[in-house]
Amino acid sequence: MQLGVQILEAPDMLSVRGRQRRAMTRQTSFFLVLALLLFPFKVCAQYAGHRGNSAGSHGGRTTGQPTEDPDLTGFKHDVAVQATDAQRLQFQSLSKSMETARQEAHDLQRPTSGSDSSTFVGSATSLRDSVDDAQRENRAFVNSFSDAQDSGLKRLTKKLIKSNGAVTKHASQLDAELEKVPLDPHRLTSLAASLEKALESLQADQLALAKEMGISLH
Q: Rounded to two decimals, what is the model's pTM?
């Protein structure tokens, strides 16, 4: 009898387990379908958000900071680098010293008839002193710049320093030549020509700087 009961109960247990498995299968299928339906929308939303951020940062859209008008920017620059009255006077004196040095370098290349070594030495020494005076005034002019002028004129000042270095190089070569005995007039003439070109380059950079600062060139 007990065996019969067990045999009768076995199909019922199998039936219950079958229904449980079918219920679990239906639940699993439901969540799988739901996930598949929701996944594309989530991906699209993320992609759209990424594109929106990219457009905001790279597409030229506003970032919350207004762009300053170029004319206003230029005006602010002009005001910041504007020369003071004292600087205008400094530059006038500097221009005269530069012209004196350049003219002496030019004259040294064309000695007068009957010129001897002492004449060459005197002319070359005068040229060297004139170059020293011009470079000293050049340094004083640049050192007078305010912080705003230093910042706004950085590019032009960098060029000025480079051309001034070339003048220093050729002037030093002239000094070395004057120490030699006997003196070589042809070598002095060649050095004077190189120095004149260096002075002309320095003058051009000074004039460009003056123009940017609003200093009248005449």
A: 0.67
Q: 148 or 13: whose pLDDT is higher?
A: 148
Cis preceding linkage at 70, omega within 30: no
The predicted pLDDT at position 114 comes to: 55
User: What is the Cα–Cα distance from 198 to 91, expressed in whole angstroms?
Assistant: 19
Q: Where is pLDDT greater, at 16 or 91?
A: 91
Q: Are 187 and 174 in contact (CB under 8 A)?
A: no
Domain ranges of the chain: 1-60, 70-212
When mean pLDDT is compared across 44-58, 93-107, 152-166, 176-190, the lowest value belongs to 44-58
Is residue 60 helix, strand or coil? coil
Instruction: Tokens for 35, please give them.
Output: 């996930």
Q: Are 93 and 138 in contact (CB under 8 A)?
A: no
Instruction: Write the single-letter amino acid at 98.
Output: M
Q: Position of tokens 């590019």?
A: 155
Phi-psi category of 99—alpha, beta or left, where left has phi over 0 and alpha has psi -120 to 50? alpha
pLDDT at 55 over 50: no
Among 2.40.50, 1.20.120, 1.25.40, 1.10.8, name the CATH number for the domain at 70-212: 1.20.120
Say if residues 56 and 63 touch (Cβ distance below 8 Å). Answer: yes
Q: Are 140 and 173 in contact (CB under 8 A)?
A: no
- At residue 133, φ and ψ (nearest 5 deg) are -60, -45
